[in-house]
TrEMBL record:
Name of the molecule in the record: Transporter
Lineage: Bacteria, Pseudomonadati, Myxococcota, Myxococcia, Myxococcales
Signal sequence, start to end: 1-24
Top-level lineage group: Bacteria
Organism: Corallococcus soli
UniProt xrefs under InterPro entries: FApF
Pfam families, A to Z: Phenol_MetA_deg (PF13557)
Length: 297
């Protein structure tokens, strides 16, 4: 029994249900007050969530002072997720990206614009009970579409692939996700596979498997802390069937986050992804800084 959760739901319902309407907070509707980021929310029919996320990251390929090429990106994702059924969540994500590529000769390319749209669906195939479940198992599927424009420099020549916000490829993905709730604690785990296709200049990113596990402690309804471990195992990219000299291998990040709710149905999340294991071939990665805002309508 999760008496505090049921009590919170009852209080929310009493406070938010006027005589002429039936509006209720998202925590009341799903029966659990756990603060969740985009993609981790519990489903209920009609749930609509908007979010935006800022990310800053980079990596360097090759050897310093020899053939190094540095990529830096600042990215803002705008996403919407809607649950047309209690067991189904549909989502669309649109990125806005600013990229800078600089090689060892100090030659530099900059590109910014809309990137490739992601569309996805999450189907909850099992839950231990209908209202306020302790365990949720879902199947995830989606595809990245080649919606990003091809950018050109001032002289009209196309920017290099690394400076482009879009790849020009259709990249499907799929996998499984689990969520568990135990009082003030919640847990999650997922495994997703990505299978990129060929895009511009006959370039194809390598297939990859990405995993994520995490635990969250929430001592109050206003804030929570989370610690996770994210990993990616990938094949090297190739151009026309010839493998690239860089990339391919395995990388893992430790991922601490803080979540805060400044008001009803609003969640702010700040965190960083710190690379702790890097077995990528001739690629060094920076930490990934993240800041997001989610709002349930």
């Amino acid at each position: 029994m999760r008496t505090p959760n049921l009590l919170l739901a009852a209080v929310c319902a009493a406070l938010l249900t006027p005589a002429s309407g039936a509006w209720a907070c998202a925590s009341c509707a799903c029966g659990d007050p756990t603060l969740t980021s985009m993609g981790g929310e519990q489903p209920f029919e009609g749930r609509l969530r908007l979010s935006t996320m800022l990310r800053a990251w980079g990596h360097t390929e090759g050897q310093q002072n020899l053939d190094a090429q540095r990529l830096r990106e600042l990215r803002m994702d705008v996403a919407v997720a809607y649950a047309p059924r209690p067991w189904l969540v549909l989502a669309v994500n649109l990125p806005l990206q600013a990229r800078e590529v600089r090689d060892v000769s100090l030659a530099r390319e900059r590109g910014w614009g809309l990137g490739d749209v992601d569309v996805s669906a999450k189907a909850f195939v099992w839950r231990d009970r209908d209202f306020s479940p302790d365990n949720l198992l879902s199947v995830v599927g989606g595809v990245k579409l080649p919606t990003g424009p091809r950018l050109a420099a001032r002289d009209g020549t196309a920017l290099g692939l690394d400076a482009q916000p879009g790849s020009g490829s259709v990249d499907p993905m799929g996998g499984l996700a689990w969520q568990g709730f135990r009082g003030s604690w919640s847990f999650m785990a997922s495994v997703l596979g990505f299978l990129p296709t060929r895009g511009r200049e006959d370039f194809r990113l390598g297939a990859s498997v990405r995993t994520s596990v995490g635990a969250q402690y929430q001592p109050s309804t206003r804030w929570a802390v989370r610690l996770g471990l994210d990993s990616r195992a990938e094949r090297a990219a190739d151009t026309a069937g010839v493998s690239e000299e860089y990339g391919g291998g395995f990388i893992a990040y430790v991922s601490p986050d803080v979540l805060f709710s400044p008001g009803m149905d609003v969640v702010v999340q700040a965190g960083v992804r710190i690379p702790v294991v890097n077995q990528l071939r001739r690629v060094s990665s920076t930490p990934i800084a993240q800041l997001s805002l989610a709002y349930d309508l």
